[in-house]
Design a protein that fits this description.
This protein is an alpha+beta fold. The chain has two domains: about 110 residues, Nuclear Transport Factor 2, Chain: A (Roll); about 160 residues, Nuclear Transport Factor 2, Chain: A (Roll). The chain contains five helices and 15 strands. Strands 1, 2, 3, 4, 5, 6 and 7 form a seven-stranded mixed sheet that branches. A hairpin with a 4-residue loop joins strand 4 and strand 5. The longest helix is centred in the first third of the chain and has 17 residues.
Length: about 290
């Protein structure tokens, strides 16, 4: 079982190769399983061909029980800076899995403007002994978030700190007076109690490959499907609302939850649009790339 330092060392090795655009600098396991933006790739493809720099933002965490390590950062590709999440599966110091999410604003119909890649002390802090949760409890709380957002009707199926904030694609989407959608002025729990996300029909393909018990962080992946059926609806306080998504649409996401004292304290997510109801290559591991 690799230590946290060993997992971070493997991550640094991978990043050094990525920034050099040289996959030969990485110690690969036999037949590594690699995806970028939910598509299978060979080593050295995708971002490896286009990266021109990596920003200083470095939010990393690790699961020493499963040999998983992950990073939220930002990457530069010539004239664009994009949030990125990178997860590695490490075996005997070699990279056996890579799952990369690069949320490129240039490719999105709804760009996230005013991105800030800043340190978040809550995400980096160790959880005090009296406020820690078991691995099973951490997973239950994180999954409860997805249960809450799916067909959001105001029912809360997890627990939040009153001060909980969520950052999506480098932009804070809670307690933010400047975000285009008015719901962003509210906190995490308040948004869900209003039933704003009624149009999120499915939170599908949920995976929880990394649990950092020491820091209380769960890293999850999945898809939000919008069927496009929901039109006008009413929030729980009686306010009329209208879905911003009136066509079949899906997001693929990487989302990290910081959990302390049995409640979600901070959320970090990177996501991008993918074809509607697109499956995950991670659900069919072992099949060759075609």
């Amino acid at each position: 079982m690799a230590s946290r330092d060993e997992l971070y060392s493997a991550l640094d090795m991978y990043l050094a190769g990525l920034n050099a655009r040289d996959s030969a600098k990485v110690r690969w396991a036999d037949a590594p399983f690699i995806s970028e933006n939910n598509v299978r790739l060979e080593p050295g493809d995708g971002l490896w061909n286009t990266i021109t720099g990596q920003g200083p933002y470095d939010l990393r965490f690790a699961d020493v029980k499963t040999g998983q390590v992950a990073l939220f950062t930002c990457v530069e590709e010539t004239n664009a800076t994009s949030p990125a999440a990178i997860r590695l599966g490490v075996q005997d110091g070699k990279i056996a899995e890579v799952e990369t999410v690069v949320a490129r604003n240039a490719d999105e119909g709804f760009p996230f403007l005013g991105q800030k890649f800043e340190r978040k002390p809550a995400m980096e802090a160790l959880v005090p002994a009296g406020e820690s949760s078991s691995r099973e409890e951490l997973l239950e709380i994180a999954n409860g978030y997805f249960e809450t957002i799916e067909r959001n009707d105001g029912t809360i199926r997890t627990r939040f700190f009153p001060t909980c904030n969520r950052v999506e694609n480098g932009v804070q989407t809670t307690n933010n007076q400047e975000f285009p959608l008015p719901i962003a002025r509210l906190g995490c729990e308040e948004q869900f109690r209003m039933g704003w996300y009624r149009y999120d029909d499915r939170l599908r393909g949920r995976r929880f490959p990394l649990v950092d018990e020491e820091r209380g962080i769960v890293l999850a992946y999945g898809f939000i499907d919008h069927c496009g059926i929901v039109g006008d609806y009413t929030l729980t306080d009686g306010t009329p609302a209208s879905s911003p998504v009136r066509r079949p649409h899906s997001y693929y996401l990487a989302e990290a939850f910081k959990i302390r004292a049995g409640a979600i304290e901070q959320i970090e997510a990177d996501f991008l649009t993918v074809p509607y109801h697109m499956p995950s290559p991670w659900d069919s591991r072992g099949e060759p790339i075609t």
